[in-house]
Write a structure and sequence with these properties.
With about 250 residues, the chain is an alpha+beta fold. The longest helix is centred in the first third of the chain and has 28 residues. Helix 6 crosses helix 9. It is built from 11 helices and 5 strands.
Amino acid sequence: MKNLSIIISTIAIVLATTSLIVSFKTPTSGVSGKAAVLTQADLTNLLNENPKIVVDAMEAYQVKQQEEAERAANEALEKYAEEINSTANVPFVGNPDAKVTVVEFFDFSCGYCIRLAPHLEKAIANNPDVKFVFKPLTFLGAMSVYKAKAALAANKQGKFLEFYSKAMGGDLGDESSIDAMAKEIGLDMDAYSKDMTSPEVQNALDEVSNLAQNIHVNGVPTLILNGKKINAYDADAIQQVIDEAK
């Protein structure tokens, strides 16, 4: 309803502007300089004869909405820059004091995130001087939650990247297969099980989720380099933006 009212208001502004233009161009009969006033019927006829007015108003509304969304997102990125780059309670690899920081918001069950993973791993291998921070989200249900908790548990044992690589590269459709993979990469399974159910791990996921909402992360994967969202989804494109930032 709010969007509809905004659209109607936009059309009204267009019509009012058109009416004003017409009024200046159409003096009333016998009264020099006095403007004619368009009636509602006149405006209806104007719309019927010029339907593009509505199309233009809709397009103007969409452009305005997009500009406002982009401005709000950029302001949020600036406001939460420290939290975005923070490695507190989340995995990271690379130089902790790096000049360049790449942050990935992702979901282990997201197909696009799975496609991106090997490209990101290549960027990690080629850029040991860059810090890569991983912020797991759980948009896609119970398995997303289980995998994210397992990943944070693996991180506590220094094996996040091994877990990430295998989880993104294999068919891990149930909890038992995830646990089997965790054992395969050499995790202490008692510590793993304890950490997965710990308040600390749950709090870490909650913090990532809240941050994602605050900075308008509406889809995954989302990559942020030094506080700016980037559209780079293959190794070459990621390397290019890293090189530009160095």
